[in-house]
Amino acid sequence: MGKSAAGKGPTSAGTTPVWRPTKRRWWTAAFLRGAQAPEAQAVIAHIVLFTPKPDLDSDKRRAFAQAILDTCASIPEVRRAIVGRSAHVNAGYSRDFGDKTYEYAAVMEFETQAGLVAYLTHPTHKALGRMFWESCDSTVIMEVECADAKTPGAINLLV
Asked: Residue 63: which domain range?
């Protein structure tokens, strides 16, 4: 076996990773010969945008927020969960966001649709759901198959 083109390790049958230091990522020799881009590692995201009821007192608001965190932490199928509040950003141009905006967001990621279904049907999530509908004034909820946009195969999720 010889050294790769970049001198960073052996080559074997054209499939050993070839290091391209200027790009800071590796590509297989097969990919460099024009093979198809690898598929992006897709996950299922459960995206919840919401605004609590205006008359929800601070104790109920805190209990609701804690229930969101506890639900995400206690259900093992949740791969990753992020939560946050609306950030108002002055980008120097008009940024109208449609008919409705929301105060908060929660995004949970799952490896598979089965993992999402396990989450949605879990007793802890069902209890959160009851609290959610009692606490929220408006919401939009959707599930999205998504992947890191920097991966070559991510284009396939948009076309």
From this structure: 43-87+99-146
Instruction: Give the CATH number for residue 67.
Output: 3.30.70.100
Helical H runs in 75-122? 113-121
81 assigned to some structural domain: yes
pTM: 0.72
Structural contact between residues 11 and 2, judged by C-beta atoms closer than 8 angstroms: yes
Alpha-helix residue ranges (DSSP H) falling in the chain: 29-32, 58-74, 113-121, 123-135
Nearest CA to 115 out of 78, 141, 71, 70 is that of: 78
Segment 2-44, tens digit of pLDDT: 444 444 444 445 554 444 444 444 444 444 455 555 566 789 9
For the stretch 93-121, pLDDT in tens is 887 777 788 999 999 999 999 999 999 99
